[in-house]
Amino acid sequence: MSDNKPAPDPECRPVEFRGGGFAPTTVRWVGLGVFIVLIALAEAGTRMSVISALTLPRPSQVFATLADLYHSGMLWKHLWPSLSRLAVGSLLGASAGILIGVLIGLFSYIRSGLVPLVAAIFPIPKIALLPLFVIWFGIDEGSKYALIAFGTFTPTVVATYGAVDNVDRTLIRMGQSFGLSWSSIVRKIVLPGAMPGILSGLRISLSIAIILLVAAEMLGAEYGVGAYILQAGSLYDLEQLFAGVLILSCLGVLVSAAITLVERRILAWRT
Fold first, then answer.
1. Would you say 255 and 207 are in contact if contact means Cβ atoms under 8 Å apart?
2. Cα gap 120→136, rounded to integer Å
3. How far is Cα 141 from Cα 131, in angstroms, rounded to an integer?
4. pLDDT, tens digit, for every residue of 199-229?
5. Which H helix or E strand runs over 132?
6. Would you say the pTM of this structure is higher than 0.85?
7. What is the pLDDT of residue 270?
8. For residue 140, how many other CB atoms are within 10 A of its CB?
């Protein structure tokens, strides 16, 4: 029996994937190159007196200040308290925010009761509540943890229940048609489908937590990056001030990188 399959056309070629423009990838070293260019421009501008030394110190002097902080041991003396406050406060606020957000997304009565409350407290500037937290929890670590946790909690709640609401209802109906239980649908469909939105909300919440960390450490903290910046600002020591700002920037980059690693690991199914 002869094979009736047609011979392949030599002019046929595979069609290029047309959705590539909506699947962005990270180009290595481009971000680092942007930082290097900006630092080089600032260094050149301050050396040529295009930029006044009263408004912007030389980046080389800022790096020298950071090196002095490291060799003297004061860098870790300020950094470790900040990291512990950020970790504890963010963990408390983010955990509670994800839990409450999921409950709001799943249960109508909880949504009806808590969404107006979240909407009422979300616009309140959290820094303005710091004196109140000091009265409630004291001037020591409790008030700092509470401020960071509260500031992390509200955006995490909003991002989480919004992510749960955006899960494709067709997938939920499909799970119901296959006889999955309510808990299985939540565990296998709702939570994985909401995870991209939850992680995006955490990225914003942790950035807010760093801002509140600095504000909390400027009140009643002997050590911490915020206390270091406050001391440098009161002395108008621009090198130390920008060194503290650089530490916060690096902390923000590290937090963003950590969220990116979690996204790649948990959301590998999207690729």
1. yes
2. 21
3. 14
4. 999 999 999 999 999 988 888 778 888 889 9
5. helix 130-137
6. no
7. 66
8. 11
- The Cα–Cα gap between 217 and 126 comes to 14
Please state, in angstroms and as integers, the Cα–Cα distance from residue 81 to each residue in 154, 188, 203, 217, 247, following that order. Answer: 24, 39, 22, 10, 13
Dump pLDDT digits (tens) for 238-249: 889 999 999 999
Query: Tokens standing for 205?
Result: 């919440």
Residue whose tokens read 């992510």: 163
Angle in degrees, CA 117, 189, 266, rounded to 5: 90
Query: What is the model's pLDDT at position 116?
Result: 93
DSSP secondary structure code for residue 22 in this structure: G
- Residue 191's identity, in one-letter code, is L
- For the record, the structure tokens of 155 come out as 């955006």
* Residues of the chain falling short of pLDDT 50: 1
Tokens of residue 109, six digits: 């009565």
List the structure tokens of 193.
């489908």
CA gap 45, 51 in Å, rounded: 5
